[in-house]
Amino acid sequence: MPTRSAEFAAVFRRLRGILARYAPKLSVVHDTSSQYNLDTRTIGPNRRPIAFGGVKAGKGYVSYYLMPIYSAEVKVGMSPALKQHMQGKACFNFKQVDDGLFAELERVTRQCYAAWKKIEWVD
């Protein structure tokens, strides 16, 4: 049976892989074994790049942050199972790999990117 840290490492790698697809069009802010963050190249009202998303391994779970979900209407089409993993408005927490939920999260991330592309916050 895999240890919790091994499970979390697998979860982190899978979630990081979802976001990493957007790295060529965004800016990588952190890329370590426990944290991965992407910012847009658009400067926000605070004169800093706008955060797009990130993955962070914690003690109790791995968090997937997706900032565009605040304004995107994709939440309406999300499954109840994925919504159960939401913590707050833009964070999903996972303790183990779930192929179905990760596929849905990949779709949601793609829709969020498209929503921000529409308002020209990403290329």
Shape descriptor: globular
The fraction of residues assigned to DSSP E strands is: 25-35%
Largest sheet geometry: 5 strands, antiparallel
What integer is the average pLDDT? 93
Enumerate how many helices there are, as a single number: 3
| Poorly predicted runs of 5 or more residues | none
The CATH class label is Alpha Beta
Overall domain count:
1
Structural class: alpha+beta
Written overview of the protein:
Helix 1 (4-20) packs parallel to helix 3. The protein is of the alpha+beta class. The chain has a single domain (4-118), classed as Aspartate Aminotransferase, domain 1 (Alpha-Beta Complex), CATH 3.90.1150. It is globular, with a radius of gyration of 14 Å. The longest helix is centred in the last third of the chain and has 20 residues, at 99-118. The mean pLDDT is 93. It has helices at residues 4-20, 80-83, 99-118; strands at residues 27-31, 35-43, 49-57, 62-66, 91-94. The chain starts with a helix and ends in a 5-residue tail after the last helix. Strands 1-2-3-4-5 form a 5-stranded antiparallel β-sheet. It is built from 3 helices and 5 strands, in the order H-E-E-E-E-H-E-H.
Short structural summary:
The protein has 123 residues and is α+β, with helices and mostly antiparallel strands.
Task: Describe the secondary-structure layout.
Elements: H1 4-20, E1 27-31, E2 35-43, E3 49-57, E4 62-66, H2 80-83, E5 91-94, H3 99-118
Antiparallel strand pairs: 1-2, 2-3, 3-4, 4-5
